Amino acid sequence: MGRNAEPQPSRIVAISPDDGTAIDLRNAALAAVLSWAVPGLGQLYQGRTTKGSLFMAAILTTFVLGLWLGGGKVVYASWKPGDTRWAFVCQAGAGLVAMPAVVQSAKLLGPARQPLLLNGFMAPPLAPGQYVSRSYADRLARHDADIRPDDFFDKPPLKQFRRDQLAQWHRQLGKFFEIGTLYTMLAGMLNLLVIYDAWAGPLGPSEDEKKRRAAESATTTVSTAATEPAS
Amino acid sequence: MEATTTLTLTTVMAISPWLFETPLLGSLAGRVPGIFFGLPLVALASLIFAATHHEDPAQIRLATVHWTVWLGGMLGMVLAAVLLLGWLQ
Q: Could you tell me if the ipTM is greater than 0.90?
């Protein structure tokens, strides 16, 4: 099952760059999808448990740490004019752990006008003039220290926000908004390398490739020295 | 299934304020200069880069150290150049 297992003919096999043993990648496409869904899960499926556990611990810890540093507000999906959250494209690379943001955004902009999780976890910030459900507005006014009931115009059956929640978040979190965003983005981007590793095996050159490069390098050095004029 | 979903959502709603608004940890993080928040990212990038290039744990450790020194050195030089430019102005 693991890296030393006898490969089956129908399976894709990679070569370990360290000792030249075969690595059974099993269903490489499925492994890649699994590694996107949960970082390292594809490697665990392939029996590469050390690397799988390492990837899972490192990437998920960084993502959660970034989320915590950013007060739980730095991962959100928004494609509104003026607040296009391009950082989420990178954050989505971390897999399912970022997907609540998509659900929250879709629900908030949908007919219900409120996120699925009413505490606003991973929901996009409210823009000035944005309509939300009365229950979400009331909950924000009760639980968010920066939002008061008179921050909403009463427009039955909805309420209309009249301030800029993103500006509030920046003021509240300061540098931690950017630091948290950076951590979560980097976790997502590094997971792309993990996905590639699950799909195609290790990126490092094999022993044969290293020997070939060393031989080429030696040949080039010798020929350069031979063609140089004597001083 | 519905009960499980409700339980999961309730748990997330219950723990998220505790998880993300812990005053003690927040104040501790606030005392750390911003530059130090980059160090774990250098270590993480080196670790992931090393682990995607090797299979053997010993080789992964060696390559992690190699990449940490290389990446840290490069970023350190950029930081030194920026600080020097700031000092010269």
A: no
